[in-house]
Amino acid sequence: MTPESRVDHALLNLLGAPQVVLEEAGLIGPGFIDMEAMRDALENAISPENYFRRSNFHHDEWVNATGLIAGPDTWTENALDWYVKPTGASVNYVRIESGPDERGTYAAQLVGATGVTTVDFGTWVPAAVAGELKGDVLAFSVWVKNATGAAINVRLAAQTSTVLDGMADAVDFLVGDNIPIGSGLWVRCELTVDAAASGNFKNGCMFLLRTTALTSNVKSLEIAQGQLEIGETATAYVRPTLPAIPKDTVIVYPDVALETTGAPFDIVLQDRATGKKVYLANPPALFATPVLGFDRATGRPKWIDTTGNKQVFNYTGADQLLTVPEGAVSMVIYAWGAGGCNDAPGDTGAIKGGVGGYSRCTFVVTAGAQYTVMVGEGAHALARRTYGFGGAGQGAAHQHNGGGLTGIFTGTGAVAATDFARALVIAGGGGAAGQSGGGGNAAQGGNGNEAAWSGTTADFQGVDSVGGVTSGNGGGGGGRYGGQGLGLGGKGGTGFCHTAATPNGGAHVNGTAELVSSAIRPSLTVPGSTLDEYVNPAGQSGRPGVLVVVFS
């Protein structure tokens, strides 16, 4: 078969290869996929589904969390795929912990200045998704809080472009009625959009919230929980989990030519509009079930493996063994420490233990190498220390245990509290809540990895608490430095990522430290919980940690 030969996607379907999986990694050009087959895959999706990539303004998706300015008459990105465009003057914006209900922890806060006449806040739906929604009636909704000190009006709007994915060229095709919002109120604003009414909808669409006819400072607007779904009326908020696809996995089939003379290339993908080809060699030997995916950073196809290259370690109460599989040359470690326990069993306590920290690091590895994994314990009333070096709680009625650390260590022997040289990655456990005098005084535990509320012991072990029969001062969390006392509560343990510049883990000088993150007290939102690698409810108060390894 010559390089120019084409194989019908239906035949590829019968042959069972190749499959293209659209997942978190990829926003792709629609020319590389068979849109008719994609439509068939999507037609059984059950509404409501949130078609926005992210609409909860999570911390990890902000370019910066504070000190950002959007200049007038220009779209400025504030969070991944969310933008601000004021007219008349600049607008400051930050991410804050605020929301209309417990489903939305974060909000975008816009703070304006004299001269701002309108502010547009919106997100772009790419052509690969808009093209599949172009015949539907859609419901766009978003929550907004008015803190200007006086009532204001807002409108929802939708913009499309004559240019494929031309966000900069988009103009209004639908503007809703004025929605009055009193000062200090959260209001959910809704707009029904007939996508078929715009012939340009298939090129992509900007959905936005717009303030109208402002005559004074914007002062403060908070925006959260944007949602786009099929249907005329908005339903309860659904937090999106994938960038653009309303199902866990959508499989489509590309136009493919089998290359017989282009070794080492195995498959050729061809863009039907431009004729441009992308050549792929055989998938890595590491991948047990290779499929074709797309790299969002480059917009190009790549081999992925949704199961074979990822290993998840949950809490077991004992050290676990990790063996690097054949074909792997690097591993990314995602670790969440356990949460410190509350001042009563389970979720019933009024005073909460600190949440576990989150640490991520990448290492060059050799197939067959073995490591020891420790996943921290989060539990209440154990009358002992928690696994992962969490400090023991005291008190007959309330035993407040610090959460155990989660980490990975060189070698296969049992991990001791002083095994600093073996540590590659550590996510600190949260400190326990504490109380005294039968609950007359109480304090929330410190969060894992948080500099201001984590301890400085000489080893991994969190400090044990002290207390009487009706008291229970919180135990410290395990960590690179275990948590000490925090008044009534316990401090969290500190996090750690090994690099060549650090004294630990001398056998692994090829580490790349990427992130040691924590919740900022009194927040109890687990850091990194929006990632696909996160396993709910790991790291929450009183819950065990989790460790995920992704090989490549």
Task: Summarize this structure as a short list of keywords or feature phrases.
552 residues, mainly beta, six-stranded antiparallel sheet, 3 helices, 4% helix, 33% strand, globular
By oligomeric state, this entry counts as single chain
Low-confidence stretches: 1-47, 241-266, 468-472, 501-510
Radius of gyration: 26 Å
Number of helices: 3
Structural class: mainly beta
% residues in beta strands: 25-35%
Helix content estimate = under 10%
Largest sheet: 7 strands, antiparallel
Strand segment count:
34
User: How far is the first residue's CA from the last residue's CA?
Assistant: 32 Å
The best one-word shape is globular
Mean pLDDT: 74
Could you please describe the fold and organization of this structure?
The chain is mainly beta and 552 residues long. Helix content is 4%, strand content 33%. The protein contains three helices and 34 strands. Strands 3, 4, 7, 9, 10, 11 and 13 form a seven-stranded antiparallel beta sheet that branches. It has a six-stranded antiparallel beta sheet with strand order 2-5-6-14-8-12, with no helix packed on it. A hairpin with an 8-residue loop joins strand 5 and strand 6. The longest helix has 8 residues. The radius of gyration is 26 Å and the shape is globular.
